[in-house]
Amino acid sequence: MSLFWHVPGFPNYRNDVQEGDTQFFMHYDDKTGKRKFLVIDGGTPAYFDILYRDLKMFSAHGEDSELRLAVSHSHYDHIKGIRLLMACKTKGKYTFNITTLYCQDPASLEKGLRDNKGSRSVRNDINVLRDTINEAKARGIKVVYLKNEQKVVWGDIKFQNFQMQPSRVEDDDDYGWSYMNDGSLCFWFWEQKYLTTGDGPNTIDKLCDKYDLDPVMVKGPHHGNFFVRKTATWMKKHGCWLYWDNDLSKGITDFLQTGREDAIGVGMTVMNVIGAINGIFYKGKAVIYKGGKIYRYECPYAGGLKLLDANAAFVRRVLRGDFGNGDTRTTYILCYRRNPGLVQKSVNAVINTAKGIKSGKLDYGRNEERLKRLDKEFGAGYGQLIQDYINVLYGVRKAV
User: Fold this and answer.
1) What is the pTM of this model?
2) Cα–Cα distance for residue pair 120/314, rounded to 1 Å
3) Cα–Cα distance between 205 and 243 in angstroms, integer?
4) Starting from the edge strand earliest in sequence, which strands make up the sheet with 242-244, in order?
5) β pairing state of 277-282 and 269-271
6) Which tens digit of pLDDT belongs to each residue from 351-391?
7) For the domain with range 2-298, which CATH number is right: 1.10.10.10, 3.30.70.380, 1.10.3660.10, 3.60.15.10?
8) Cα-based angle 83, 47, 337 (whole degrees, multiple of 5)
9) Strand order of the sheet with strand 23-28?
């Protein structure tokens, strides 16, 4: 069995788009061959296109894959993509077997409406959430209202929900916006030591302290601007060192704020969504891939990791450029359930061996003898692959 985590990434900076903290977990069951997906938030339409593309790549078994959706709160950049995903089947797109929607109970938000004397923004958020719930029910999707501290266990995908609605009451109508952001659902994946925060609360250090959470990795709330220096200092002190947010700007803007800057300021490792973020969890280990770098930490997850071998045919496709470069290539490799580190090791072996033979530093004989010796050392098919790469180096061929 395998458990993957994926954050779809933009190919470049897009200051005009706030994508909504979209991510998904995938559990692959070796016994049944089925894949289970938990999609958290859906982003804006522009970001949904990327989510949709990546789900198709990972969901190789089509209807054999079951999707469950979780929405942290009903603001546009979090819920719109969820609604688009539910509508895929009716629009003739690639279909997904969506069975469940996890969300807030709209009735639990009425307090914010009362406290704000009928705030237009709170009422609008409640209405959007109710419309989404009705859409789900009309499509036969089960709706589960998550309560504070409620746990969800679905195969190897396990999380606990937390919610801290702000206690302050203000007359300003803008507080309705704050009420929904600060009180959005937070999902704690205790076996992965990972806390993803929606847009709030704006004091996740207090949430972790109150419920005795000890994350190693955290998603910065509200595009990062709720991750202030005081919060970052507390989180780092209590063992959290890996941070990501969806700030797509190159610098600090008037909206996508300073969370990344404060995280870096206290010595945390920071990742953004220019390029995908990928993770594998297995046997007490977490391995996160981002921007050509690998980050590792220990976690309680005890599940196994059964990945396919990096055979010669697959390595040939990587060398040929079928999967692109960087984070895109890592994502494709994981989609095919192969270990990016081992694949890169095999790629390097092919390149270095070919160069060594061409330069005369390595001697594997010639013709059939060379192919047999290379196959014996590296595996079936590698002899011809290495020979083809030698031909590329000589200019006999343009690609492997």
Assistant:
1) 0.90
2) 55
3) 14
4) 151-154, 157-162, 186-189, 194-196, 217-219, 242-244, 269-271
5) unpaired
6) 999 999 999 999 999 999 999 999 999 999 999 999 999 99
7) 3.60.15.10
8) 95
9) 142-145, 97-103, 66-70, 35-40, 23-28, 2-7, 277-282, 285-290, 293-298
